[in-house]
Amino acid sequence: MEVPTTTSLDQIYPEEALSTQKRRWQNLLSQFKTTYDRPPDFVSRSPGRVNLIGEHIDYSLYEVIPMAVTADVLLAVSVNARKDGPSRVRIANVDSSKFPTREFEIPSEGEIKIDASSHEWTNYFKSGLLGASQSLAKNKNKGNHFPSVGMDILVDGTVPSGGGLSSSAAFVCASALAVMKANGDDKVDKKELVELAVVSERNVGVNSGGMDQAASVFSLRGSALYVSFKPTLSAKAIEFPPTKPELIFVVAQSFVAADKHVTAPVCYNLRVVECTLAAEFLAKAFGLKRPLPQDSGPLGVSLRGFQDTYFEEKEAVVDNTQTPVPQFQQQLEKLVQLTEDYLIQEDGYTREDIAAILRVSVDQLNARYMSAFPVRAERFLLRQRALHVFNEAIRVLKFMALLSSPPAKDEDLLNGLGELLNQTQASCRDVYDCSCPELDELCTLARAAGAYGSRLTGAGWGGCSVHLVPADKVDAVRQAWTEKYYKKRFPDISDERLEEAVVVSKPGSGSSVFVVE
Ligand code: NG1
Ligand code: MG
Question: Which helix or strand (DSSP H or E) is residue 470 part of?
Fold first, then answer.
């Protein structure tokens, strides 16, 4: 499926956002004219996302259920096919005080360098450029070209950065899309865009899974997405059944900035390593004959790969009277059991412990799993990480089952969904260790004020939270946060910032190209 091209904002934004968005787009287009002395040729757009359930399991290749939000990143672009000398990019931001204008020559494919150690906003553009360049080079026969044409760009992003709504993926996806469009690719394939954006975003220093880019590109207005990574990347729109009271997702910022680039070696990238090592450890512990399959997990093997291999080799038939989904759930339940029985060290495993099981040296272990993305840890909590992943994958299945065959009473459906969100939060807090006191407090306050379920969303350690709230309790929940969280922790908070802190989130549309007429 191709990324859609449109000429009308009402195909992109919901009714209630249209007047604000029209003003914002007019400002973008007129600022572009003042900056570059001509109108842009097109605007590429990709949104942020909120994850509803399935946290920290995308990089173990388990299914997740995110949805796009209305907030997005826009790149207004004018192409300049300069004949003399190499092409250049000029890239400015409507918020020039925070994001200063940059200009650089476009290197040839393979020469694009990104310095992940510097905190430079245009790194995200460059990683999109890098991904797009590889795809364009591969598809030269389609009439696309690389090295790229020159581009004058003005960026406008409304996804808060470090806020857990994935501004990074929105920026990388919109950038890759802009470069592909500028170089003649009018039929950008959604799946290809996601795959290249996932890989290229890793150049910014975080060894991420693929949920954010999938949500940003594939989303359709009005639906959440069920994203699968195995056997291949795919996404399916899911509808929420109408209920009384109406089911509403509210997103609340903690205003604790989660700076993944700084914390990656002890937080995000460490979790990726722990999950990967748990997969290798379990495979060795059960004496699997075949090595784990190389798949699209960030370190090449995954817990999902372990699951598939284990059941192929050890228990070919689980229960063939069941439909595929319960069978998959039974497998996961079995894996929870095996993890509890075999990964017994509650206080974690040292590098020496793990190397001995995998029958490699500590140097080999470091080189294989911890060199491209270094991590800092004495002990690796393999038991806890595997337990979170398998149980969270089960919760995603249960969430889907509730939506596809809802119980007769709406109350039961809402309580059921809410309970799964609450369990995720408890697991993120106690087992995966990716929450923080502020996120825990937002969740506790929301539940006390009437939310069915509350949890962090995205990587955690700060950022955003998401809450399933009945329509008639949204005001009460907002009130509780305002009085007991925001005004208490940030006594000088402005009304404007308070307004931004809490957003009722309707599923938004995914990436598109807007042609300026
Ligand atoms: P954030 O930090 O919210 O963008 C990250 C990862 C996701 C996923 C979640 C946790 C990136 C770009 N994204 O999201 O792939 O693993 O954490 O579920 O790193
Ligand atoms: Mg991000």
Answer: strand 464-470
- Which atom of ligand 1 is least distant from the CA of 57? 18
The answer to whether residue 212 is catalytic is yes
Instruction: Name the closest ligand to CA 73.
Output: 2
Answer whether 388 contacts ligand 1 (Cβ < 6 A): no
Q: Ligand 1 within 6 A of 56 CB?
A: yes
Ligand nearest to the CA of 194: 1
Q: Is 206 in the pocket of ligand 1 (CB under 6 A)?
A: yes
List CB contacts of 187: < 8 A, sequence separation 6 or more. Answer: 2
Q: What is the pTM of this model?
A: 0.95
Q: From the CB of 166, is ligand 1 less than 6 Å away?
A: yes
156's CB contacts (< 8 A; 6+ apart) are 24, 27, 28, 73, 74, 76, 93, 94, 95
Closest residue to atom 2 of ligand 1, CA basis:
459
d(CA 201, ligand 1 centre) in Å: 11
Q: How many CB atoms lie within 10 A of CB 192?
A: 20
DSSP string of 66-110, one letter each residue? EEEEEEEEEEEEEEE---SS--EEEEEESSTTTS--EEEE-PPTT
Could you read off the pLDDT tens digit of each residue along the chain, which spans 517 residues?
Answer: 999 999 999 999 999 899 999 999 999 999 999 999 999 999 999 999 999 999 999 999 999 999 999 999 999 999 987 667 788 999 999 999 999 999 999 887 667 888 888 889 999 999 999 999 888 888 776 666 667 889 999 999 999 887 789 999 999 999 999 999 999 888 999 999 999 999 999 988 889 999 999 999 999 999 999 999 999 999 999 999 999 998 899 999 999 987 777 899 999 999 999 999 999 999 999 999 999 999 999 999 999 999 999 999 987 655 545 555 578 999 999 999 999 999 999 999 999 999 999 999 999 999 999 999 999 999 999 999 999 999 999 999 999 999 999 999 999 999 999 999 999 999 999 999 999 999 999 999 999 999 999 999 999 999 999 999 999 999 999 999 999 999 999 999 999 999 989 999 889 999 999 998 8
Ligand 1 contact via 55 beta carbon (within 6 Å)? yes
Atom of ligand 1 nearest to the CA of 58: 16
The residue whose CA is least distant from atom 4 of ligand 1 is 166
